[in-house]
Design goal:
25 strands; alpha/beta; FAD/NAD(P)-binding domain
């Protein structure tokens, strides 16, 4: 069995940033385990620009952004294992790993950072009615095929869902000569970033149909057409609104799911709202010494924020390795109330000074206030010009809580 101070599971944006920060914090014995043949994660296939505006004050492509951190990993002599898969993780921080060179082996870690990213929702998970011919893809798979494998997936395309990857691939496929017939969104608002709506759809005259969904897929061997229907307030197709659109490809951009099968094996408690681990304000899970950051924790819109979060996880894991497990502390539970979809973190140290809270709202709005209530008393208020479910937003909370018997703080949108 190998012994390591810190094992980082995942070599994407979060894993790279966490490892680099932990190394700079004085932890020397670090290893990054990545299942792909190269580091970089999903960034390798994101060849469009727009990355790094927050972190580096310049627009980079995904591979360029990843390479900056890969270079730091190499410069700091951080060990990496690529083409390696973590099969199991115990609450004692023992990882079972498999790869071609060594076969199956174990690593005992003093601390672990979970940075496995997320996976896409598939046709099966959203239960689209109709046939199951060839030509139905998830947006991330199409991005991989077109950008990395030089494989064109179709010529007449319908995209279901207005997630960012779907919007970006609408533009990409158009540039490659395909005809994107429409982007369909079941909600009354787009789920991607505003800049992607503008740059990928409006600039290329690609129709965006809100309150629409695919009510049937038709085709024997290959997709031949889809039936598109308007939906009502309950998101059910409206009879009589059907429209058949000829196409040979249906691309799904209907959301991401944090990849936490490994987390569950270690006994990490998951949050129903985020799909990721329940975490404390230092990004530690309920299992001492296991930390989480990036899309495995909650879905991010901007990779720069992934790096910021992972750096905090790297610092916290380094502190844990140096000092060991903290004594039992008093925590407040942050509860999402009316209008709030989720909050990160969920548990905050009662002795905090200033804390950054990430959140998403349930529906879009303008000139709204975020309120934090201690019982019925409002202890915090922050105004936002606009709020949208598609945008993860943040605010800083200062500790002005006088009632030391507080256990739950409710966050609401007004």
């Amino acid at each position: 069995m190998l012994a390591k101070d810190l094992v980082v599971v995942g070599g994407g944006a979060a894993g790279l940033a966490a490892a680099v920060t932990a190394k700079k914090a004085g932890i020397d014995d670090i290893i990054i385990i990545e299942r792909e043949r190269m580091l970089g994660g999903i960034l390798r296939q994101c060849i469009h620009d727009g990355f790094g505006l927050h972190k580096f004050n310049k627009a980079l492509t995904g591979p360029e952004y990843a390479q900056l951190y890969i270079d730091k990993v190499k410069d700091l002599n951080i060990s990496t294992l690529t083409n390696s898969f973590v099969l199991n993780l115990t609450k004692d921080k023992i990882l079972t790993v498999i790869n071609k060179e060594r076969g199956m082996f174990n690593i005992k870690a003093n601390a672990v950072v979970l940075a496995m990213g997320s996976r896409e929702k598939t046709a099966g998970s959203i239960k689209i009615p109709g046939e199951r011919p060839a030509g139905i893809y998830t947006a991330g798979l199409v991005q991989n095929l077109v950008n990395l494998e030089n494989i064109m997936v179709g010529s007449k395309v319908i995209i279901l869902g207005s997630g960012d990857i779907g919007l970006i691939m609408a533009r990409r496929l158009t540039l490659e000569g395909a005809k994107v017939e429409a982007v369909l969104e079941i909600m009354p608002y787009a789920s991607g970033l505003t800049r992607n709506i503008t740059q990928c759809l409006i600039d290329y005259d690609i129709p965006l149909k809100l309150n629409h969904t695919v009510s049937e897929v038709r085709g024997k061997d290959r997709v031949e057409s889809v039936v598109v229907s308007k939906v009502d307030r309950n998101l059910n197709p409206i009879l009589g609104s059907e429209e058949e659109i000829d196409c040979d490809t249906l691309i799904l951009s209907v959301g991401l799911i944090p990849e936490n099968e490994l987390s569950k094996k270690a006994g990490v408690k998951l949050n129903n709202n985020t799909g990721g681990p329940m975490i404390k304000d230092n990004l530690e899970t309920n299992v001492p010494g296991i930390f989480s950051a990036g899309n495995v924790l909650h879905i991010h819109d901007v990779v720069d924020y992934v790096s910021d979060e992972a750096e905090r996880a790297g610092e916290a894991s380094a502190e844990y390795i140096k000092r060991g497990e903290n004594e039992k502390q008093n925590y407040y539970y942050l509860k999402p109330g009316n209008g709030i979809s989720y909050l990160v973190p969920q548990l905050i140290d009662a002795n905090f000074d200033l804390l950054e809270i990430s959140f998403r709202v349930e529906r879009p709005g303008s000139n709204r206030d975020i309120l934090i209530k201690n019982r019925d008393k409002v202890i915090f208020r922050k105004s936002f010009e606009t709020v949208r479910p598609s945008i993860m937003q943040k605010f800083c909370l200062e500790n002005k809580i006088q009632d030391k018997n507080t256990q739950t703080l409710e966050v609401v949108l007004k």
